[in-house]
Design goal:
60% helix; single chain; mainly alpha; 0% strand; globular; 98 residues; 4 helices
Amino acid sequence: MRHRKRIKKLGVSKPRRTQMMRNMTASLILHERLQTTEARAKALTAYFARLMHHVQTKEVREAIRITPKYLYSVAASRKLHSEFKTRFANRTSGFTRI
């Protein structure tokens, strides 16, 4: 049964989907713009919202330790913690637009 299984599979296996989300998130952070399909953009919105929630609510050391779970790029991680954390400080959701 698929009860309460709400993740979008996007037509790829779990390891590939995880890798794709990490790469697309890094591209979104570094370039602040991304061109992809609507389904992938919707999946990325939820993924990025979870990441931003961790960065905003956790202590700095803990957030830095959690970030590699969501990102491969060190440059994207630095930009996330330096620029994005202050830019979205007073926002609880709605970090991305499709």
